[in-house]
Amino acid sequence: MPTISDAITKDHRELEHYYNEVVNNSGNHDHQQRYGNQFTWELARHSVGEELVVYPAFEKHLGAKGKEMAEHDRKEHHQVKELLKVFQGMKSTDEDYVAKLKEIWGPLSKHMKEEEEGDMPALEDKLSSAQGQSESMATAFSYTKAFVPSRSHPSAGEHPPFETVMGLLTAPIDHIADLFRKFPQETISPNPSTK
């Protein structure tokens, strides 16, 4: 079974793939729109999943340092959510579509690197004493992503329980709207229960 670090890293690599599909296919607006939608869908769900599952684990298992890490990461998430909110409303034919995605990618790639190289190894070290806890957390992270919004809603905040309530209210609306958005051919329609 994958660990929570495996699950987080897998999502990061998917986001990187979707980003590259948009940036490296200039002129193919349909392709860019599909992968831009996929990027938004995955990033929105990933961010909220971390905020509801991973960051509380930082606080629980890593003490004062974990609280500091969680707050730092929440602030970075908020910045990215604000940028994503603008991007998700754009069309790939908009002149600054790729530029806006690159603006998101700057702080996002830095954040992902910090998580992979510092935050997650520190958490895994603490979880290693309880067999299966990291794997259980990975499962919870996966399930959580099935019920959260698939678009950016920065006004919902980054702290449970308010974020949880807002997410449960907005997620069904986002999921219905996703049925009418274009996504890459290999995903007929993103189905949160399969990711």
Task: Describe this protein's structure.
- Residues 3-123 form the Hemerythrin-like domain.
- The chain has helices at 4-23, 29-61, 63-87, 97-127, 133-145, 162-178.
- The protein is mostly helical and 195 residues long.
- The chain is globular and about 50 Å long.
- The two termini are 15 Å apart.
- Residues 191-195 have low confidence and may be disordered.
List the SSEs and their pairings:
Elements: H1 4-23, H2 29-61, H3 63-87, H4 97-127, H5 133-145, H6 162-178
Helix pairs in contact: 1-2, 1-4, 1-5, 2-3, 2-4, 2-5, 3-4
| Biggest pleated sheet | none
Structural class: mainly alpha
- The unreliable regions are 191-195
Number of helices: 6
InterPro entries: Hemerythrin-like
Pfam families: Hemerythrin
Protein name: Hemerythrin-like domain-containing protein
Domain Hemerythrin-like: 3-123
Concise synopsis of the structure shown:
The chain is mostly helical. It contains six helices and no strands.
Characteristic key phrases:
195 residues, mainly alpha, 0% strand
